[in-house]
Write a structure and sequence with these properties.
It is a single chain. This protein has 17 helices and 14 strands. The chain is α/β, with parallel strands linked by helices. The chain has two domains: 250 residues, Spore Coat Polysaccharide Biosynthesis Protein SpsA, Chain A; 92 residues. The strands form three sheets. The protein has a nine-stranded mixed β-sheet with strand order 3-4-5-2-1-6-10-8-11, with helices on both faces. The protein has a three-stranded mixed β-sheet with strand order 7-12-9. The protein is globular. It starts with 11 loop residues before the first helix and ends in a 10-residue tail after the last helix.
Length: 436
């Protein structure tokens, strides 16, 4: 466990972030005594206070004191039911343990206890404190993480890792230790293993299994292609190094996808590592809390099932052409080859055309010329991957898909993907995929 920095030894990124970009709630940190070994930030909306049961295993398995920061949030235009549930949950959390500090000018925010940990509940759900429309979970994660960062720089948080999770997750006992073990030099963020747990509803659980398979298929494809953005962006599994969190200005204020965009920025600074240990268990459920994500994806799969649409995965050709592009880009960076000509050389005509058109749509030649002009004879591969990031990787795959390589049915994709093991390709597909 790294020692917390003395309060006066702030790096330039930390000082700049805290004075310019941090949320106003960081002032609450001044009244949170600590010291703590670990911190876990959870945004909650329209939940029951029993979500704290999922935190307890990590708290009990931690070597020292843990602070759980709960950001109860809602947008102004949320439903009356959401506002009522949030208010009831804050009161239940208040009565979960002894309250030691309250902030009358911060709504119903308070410091108490719950699940064996200190519990800092931040109110962004009461009237007058609600979030602007469109800022949802991203803003809530940022508020909690900014408070955690303030505790770190004040010397009251020993770990340099800010852990993120969600109310539908059950934490493993080794959650904090696994991040510390994975945090080698150069690692800016850690993703914990995860699995979705059955709900008891056969149709829902079947859709959930397929969704999880699609997540793993995507990351395996990126890894096989050689992408540095081959990691899962699942909000309940993240841990971010405090200094690097400040360098990328924290979580973006987004209704959804904030985990993806944060990791996309962090991966340009260093490595996103996969932690070992037990998985975070994520409860399967339908949800309309965010405009996309797990809950919405499951609902879409169920809707497709009802229409008789087969479950599909990205065509393996998308990953093969992505790999060609990344190999060609490395030759361009190291040896000065024409990257686009190299990537399309000796490909079947249809594949060469799809890749060339997709790269043209991405403005690849223009961007490579700009990188070369700016960096000259220096290292070109790093600025290439800064430009061709996780978001542009996704866009390229989609562009190839839309040029003749639509998703394949489940079994066909597994049997033809070079990055899927023979054992996995022979495994029985989820029940709902058997129609495919």
């Amino acid at each position: 466990m790294s020692a917390p920095p003395p309060p006066t030894a702030l790096s330039k990124p930390l000082r700049k972030y805290l004075t310019t970009w941090a949320e106003p709630e960081t002032r609450l940190a001044a009244d949170v005594p600590g010291p703590y070994e670990n911190v876990l930030v959870i945004p909650v909306l329209r939940e029951q206070a029993s979500f704290l049961d999922g935190v307890r295993p990590a708290v009990e398995g931690a070597p020292g004191a843990t602070l759980v920061i709960v950001v109860v949030n809602a947008a102004e235009d949320a439903s009356a039911e959401a506002h009522s549930t949030n208010a009831e949950m804050i009161e239940r959390l208040r009565h979960a343990g002894r309250v030691t500090r309250e902030w009358p000018d911060a709504g119903a925010s308070f410091l108490g206890s719950g699940a064996g940990a200190d519990l800092l509940v931040i109110d962004r759900a009461s009237e007058g404190r609600r979030l602007p429309a469109g800022e949802g979970v991203g803003r809530a994660r940022k508020i909690g993480s900014d408070v955690a960062l303030s505790l770190r720089v004040a010397g009251r948080l020993a770990s340099e890792w800010i852990h993120a999770s969600d109310a539908d997750a059950v934490q493993p006992p080794d959650r904090f230790a696994a991040a510390e073990a994975a945090g080698a030099p150069g690692v800016v963020a850690v993703t914990h293993p995860f699995r979705h747990t059955p709900s008891g509803d056969d149709a829902l659980d079947d859709a959930l299994r397929r969704y999880e398979h699609s997540l793993r298929y995507w990351v395996q494809g990126l890894e096989w292609a050689g992408s540095p953005y081959a990691f899962h962006a699942v909000g309940s599994t993240l841990a971010v190094r405090a200094e690097d969190y400040a360098r990328v200005r924290g979580f973006p204020d987004r209704e959804a996808g904030e985990d993806f965009y944060l990791l996309n920025k962090l991966a340009k600074l260093g490595r996103v590592a996969a932690a070992g240990g037990a998985p975070v268990q994520i409860r399967g459920r339908l949800s309309d809390r965010v405009p996309f994500g797990t809950g919405r994806a499951i609902r879409r799969i169920l809707d497709d099932d009802a229409r008789g649409e087969p479950f599909r995965l990205y065509h393996p050709v998308c990953f093969r052409l992505l790999k060609r592009w990344l190999v060609a880009a490395e030759k361009w960076a190291r040896e000065g080859e024409d990257a686009i000509e190299c990537a399309t050389r000796d490909l079947p005509i249809a594949e060469a055309g799809a890749l060339a058109e997709a790269l043209d749509a991405a403005g690849a030649r223009r961007h490579l010329a700009a990188i070369h002009e700016h960096h000259g004879r220096g290292d070109l591969l790093r600025p290439f991957h800064t430009w061709f990031d996780g978001f542009r990787t996704l866009k390229l795959v989609h562009a190839i898909r839309d040029r003749g390589y639509a998703g394949l049915k489940w079994r066909e994709a597994l049997e033809s993907a070079p990055f899927v093991t023979a054992e996995a390709s022979k495994a029985p597909p989820p029940a709902g995929a058997q129609r495919a």
